Amino acid sequence: MKTMQLLLVLFLPFFLMWSLGGFDRGSYVFIWAFYAPLAELVYAQKSQRFFYFFSFLVLVAISSILNDWFFENHLQHLSLIVVDIFFFLNIAVGFAGIFYMIRVVIDQKDAYSNNSLEKEHQELLKTSKKLHSANLELENYAHYDSLTQLANRYYFQNTLSKKISYAIRHNKRFALLYIDLDGFKSINDSYGHNIGDEVLQIVGKRLQKLLREEDLLSRVGGDEFTVILDIDESYENIKKISKRIIEEINLDFDSIPESSPLGSSIGISIFPDNAKDMQTLINSADKAMYEVKKSVKNSYKISA
Question: What is the 3-state secondary structure (H, E, C) of 156-209?
Fold first, then answer.
């Protein structure tokens, strides 16, 4: 492509000019040769620009030196008809060269534009991915606890509200467990917040293992957790899961000595037996939890 452009647009105009008699008679053909270095200055790579421009200067120098000879000898061996035919052929080929050069320039311009659009497209894709990632981070921050990666209070309340609406439409029942850690404040004060945070993370992982995928475990406060749990008619699964939660939290923690045991008090409210709206359901479970905490601790109670 470049070789053809060089022949048609740079060398051919000079050859036409020489054959027609040099600068005096062929300057209107020679003028087309200016387009080659100008086009390269705009669209080509730096090395190609210098090559075209240097070639142009060399051809101009040759033309200047031999101009008189071209003028004196261009018609010497040709008849008038052949000269006319040759003249029109030269003009036709010259225009063909110019057309070819324009096409190359347009193609290069289109390629440049396409490359620019592709770069802009890639930048937009990168920006879109960054925005998507940022949105996911914001959504994660809005819905999940940063320490335990459990659902936070906002997500818990939003899910509980939807759960109540679903239970009303389908005549379903479910339980809300409100869990408070016994002895956590003492551990936090004695061993520092780093150890306290580690204990909360371990508690969250232990509780997650006990629950089904459809159950929601949330951290709604410093050492307070909630569970939204589907139940059977006899409440047996509530009692079973509550006992297992207490057992799991009672297990030893590597980061704290056995002399600082951790327990849990669990208050349980049933929808719609104990409440028919979200806030009353939460208050009912919270009240049952505090009744356990003030009496035996490390146990559970279903709200009356």
Answer: HHHHHHHHHHHHHHHCCCEEEEEEEEECHHHHHHHHCHHHHHHHHHHHHHHHHH
Residue 265, burial from CB neighbour count under 10 angstroms (0-12, 13-18, 19+) = buried
Statement to judge: residues 104 and 214 lie in one domain: no
From 182, 223, 254, 286, active-site residue: 223
Structure-block tokens of residue 244: 């297992």
Whether 95 is covered by a domain: the verdict is yes
pLDDT tens for 230-274 read 887 778 889 999 999 999 999 988 878 776 689 999 999 999 999
Same structural domain for residues 266 and 170? yes
The amino acid occupying position 163 is K
Q: What is the pTM of this model?
A: 0.59
CB 268 within 8 A of CB 175: yes
In which order are the strands placed within the sheet that holds 224-230?
216-219, 224-230, 174-182, 263-271, 300-302
Q: Are strands 300-302 and 263-271 parallel, antiparallel or unpaired?
A: parallel
Give the helix ranges, DSSP H, for the chain: 2-5, 12-20, 23-30, 35-43, 46-73, 80-143, 153-170, 184-191, 193-210, 236-250, 278-294
* Long-range CB pairs of 25-29, under 8 A, 24+ apart, other chains included: 25/71, 25/74, 29/90, 29/91, 29/94
Known catalytic residue: 182? no
Helix (H) or strand (E) holding 223: none
Please choose, from the candidates 1, 11, 2, the residue with its C-alpha nearest in 3D space to the C-alpha of residue 33. 11
Which structural domain, as residue segments, surrounds residue 159? 153-302
